[in-house]
Amino acid sequence: MPVADNNSLAYIIIEAEEGSFRGAVLASDLRGIPVDFRYTEPIRPTKLEKVLYGNALEVYLKEELILESLIRAVEAKPALWICREQNLLAPLRFFTKSKAIMLMNSNHHPLDSAGDIESTGENGVYFVQADSVSAPLKITFQPNVAENEVKFVVNLLVNASQTMELTEPFSRMQKALRTIATEIQGDGK
């Protein structure tokens, strides 16, 4: 797949299931068309690793083994990295040295027009009306985010929302990971 331009979005997920961890990143243009996709094979920690790492095992697996390796593997250089887990936001920003947000759907009442922003009262957390008909999205930045970064991200998301549903790539990635797992199981039989 070709390298993305500065107007691409990179979605990243990390899942824990049945004692194993896996992740994926999908970079897309502002229409939702993939420009890069990477994933990790499932990682299942051994009993010894569980003992040695203790409570730090999940953080180590998610941040250093999966997140960092996915970020390094992506050839696209997106304008914005998007996750859906609060605990991935700080390491995502650290490893990418780029703009990163946590993005979620909300049940908040619609704001007046696309591009409108409303603070939730939490530092760095906003409701953003990305399009004119849907409920606003809940966007979380790192605390004390600069106002110009918020405006850049909102403009980027408003532009992208004209041709794509902004949270939909997360479900595509989950389906892709399930498809990969099914194909691997099928090859092993």
Strand content: 15-25%
Q: Tally the helices.
A: 5
| Overall shape | globular
Rg over CA atoms, rounded to whole Å, is 17 Å
Number of strands: 8
Share of residues in helices: 25-40%
Sheet having the most strands: 8 strands, mixed
Structural class: alpha+beta
Adjacency order of strands in the biggest sheet:
3-2-1-4-5-8-7-6
Uncertain parts: 1-5
| Overall mean pLDDT | 92
Element order, helices and strands? EEEHHEHEEEEHH
* Distance from first to last alpha carbon: 31 Å
Report on the structure:
- It contains five helices and eight strands.
- The protein has 189 residues and is of the alpha+beta class.
- Strands 3-2-1-4-5-8-7-6 form an eight-stranded mixed sheet, sandwiched between helices.
- The longest helix is centred in the last third of the chain and has 21 residues.
Any key phrases for this structure?
189 residues; alpha+beta; globular
In short:
By secondary structure, the protein is α+β, with helices and mostly antiparallel strands. It has helices at 47-53, 57-73, 86-96, 147-161, 168-188, and strands at residues 9-17, 20-28, 34-39, 80-83, 100-105, 117-119, 125-128, 137-140. It contains 5 helices and 8 strands, in the order E-E-E-H-H-E-H-E-E-E-E-H-H.
